[in-house]
Design a protein that fits this description.
This is Sugar phosphate isomerase/epimerase family protein. This protein is of the alpha/beta class. It has one domain: TIM Barrel. Helices cover 40% and strands 16% of the residues. It is built from 13 helices and eleven strands. The chain has helices spanning 25-34, 54-66, 87-92, 97-110, 142-163, 177-187, 200-203, 208-215, 250-257, 284-288, 295-313, 320-323, 329-349; strands at residues 9-13, 39-42, 70-77, 115-119, 166-170, 192-197, 219-224, 226-232, 235-241, 264-267, 277-279. α2 links the parallel β2 and β3. α5 (142-163) packs across α6 (177-187), α8 runs parallel beside α9 and α9 crosses α13. The longest helix is centred in the middle third of the chain and has 22 residues, at 142-163. It is globular and about 55 Å long.
């Protein structure tokens, strides 16, 4: 009798897992299996095949199947105001950006890959202040960007339905869960879903547990990491932390996701730094630009920040100065593996089934 599918399968984001120079997607799939992970999310389908060769994509999908790994890929930003920053997608479409995305969907579907990541805009980590985030662009309003995104989704919907695929839009730094739920409901949950990033919602002033409850009915991909909150002159800031070492209530969050359509959790680790991003709760313009935001959730973030501050004082959590230090490859890998261990323990604690193989690289 076949073994039941685990409630949660826990893997990694390809772009944040340290890899030696010259390695490829096949190497990472094998590495993930050897480390006891259960899947890989590749940020771009072009990581699997730069030319979208269906044979190459199929071979990697078959390798993932043999290793008992889930395989997810990314497509592109679907906000046309962000499109100029992804010229490779336009090149895929011979100058037609939409056609480039459609070709990614078609090639992946032909290889049996149907869960595809997308996002709405960009965050410029080398800039400071509101203008680092596309939500606050001065040449086009956020409302105009959302309307343009909805139009692109309407164009892509028939292609997605024809291939039995979902384009899953991320809770990226610039968009709220309220806005994403509206986009998906308007575009149609049979073609679109949500990629829930557990730490990004903090940037938008949202309580991660409340956010999880909002997006769970549409969550088909999940990017998982914790966040440490600190008080600043602007209000708060967020630093990335392994799951269980930040402020998120993981039992409550994972309980909210038990009912999601898909429960593949990809640990999105860190590069060389943990990205200190502002949550400027003292800024009236920040509040004015987020009409869905609630005082209940903002005050919950303040409570979480106070609790984290107390944990730092007790020596139980890392300080802002400590988290600001560069991270080497060993720490980057520990970030992923420590997060996996914590999530597996939480899953067991809430009574969810979970694949608990550690270090098993052979197919079951």
């Amino acid at each position: 009798m076949p073994e039941p599918e685990p409630t949660f399968r826990i893997g990694t984001d390809s772009s944040k897992f340290p890899a030696p120079a010259g390695t490829d997607a096949a190497w990472l799939l094998q590495k993930a299996a050897s480390a006891g992970l259960e899947g890989v999310f590749f940020r771009s389908a072009l990581e699997l095949s730069p030319t979208l060769d269906v044979g190459e994509l199929t071979a990697l999908r078959q390798q993932a199947d043999e290793l008992d790994l889930y395989l997810e890929v990314g497509a592109a930003k679907i906000n046309p105001f962000a499109a100029p920053e992804a010229p490779e997608i336009r090149a895929l479409g011979d100058g037609d950006y939409l056609l480039g995305i459609e070709r990614i969907v078609a090639a992946c579907a032909a290889a049996g890959i149907h869960e595809i990541w997308a996002a709405t805009a960009n965050y410029k980590f080398d800039l400071a202040g509101r203008l680092a985030c596309d939500r606050y662009r001065t040449d086009v309003t956020w409302e105009e960007q959302l309307r343009a995104t909805a139009k692109v989704m309407a164009e892509l919907a028939p292609v997605l339905r024809a291939h039995g695929s979902h384009l899953n839009i991320e809770t990226h730094e610039e968009i709220t869960t309220f806005e994403l739920v509206r986009l998906v409901e308007e575009g149609g949950p049979d073609a679109f879903g949500i990629t829930f990033d557990t730490a990004n919602v903090l940037i938008r002033g949202e309580d991660p547990v409340a956010a999880a409850r909002r997006v769970a009915p549409y969550t088909r991909q999940t990017h998982v990491r914790d966040g440490a909150l600190f008080f600043t002159d602007q209000g708060l800031c967020r630093m990335l932390a392994p799951c269980g070492q930040g402020v998120i209530d993981w039992p409550a969050l994972m309980a909210a996701l038990v009912g999601a359509p898909r429960r593949a959790l990809s640990i999105e680790g860190i590069m060389g730094r943990r990205f200190q991003l502002p949550i400027p709760i003292y800024d009236p313009l920040w509040h004015a630009g987020q009409p869905d935001m609630t005082t209940v959730e903002i005050t919950e973030l303040v409570r979480l920040a106070r609790a984290y501050d107390a944990a730092v004082a007790r020596g139980e959590r890392r300080s802002l100065a400590s988290l600001s230090e560069p991270a080497d490859d060993d720490e980057r890998e520990r970030f992923v593996l420590d997060s996996v261990a914590h999530l597996r323990a939480v899953a067991v604690g809430i009574g969810a089934t979970v694949d608990t193989r550690i270090g098993a690289g052979a197919p079951r």
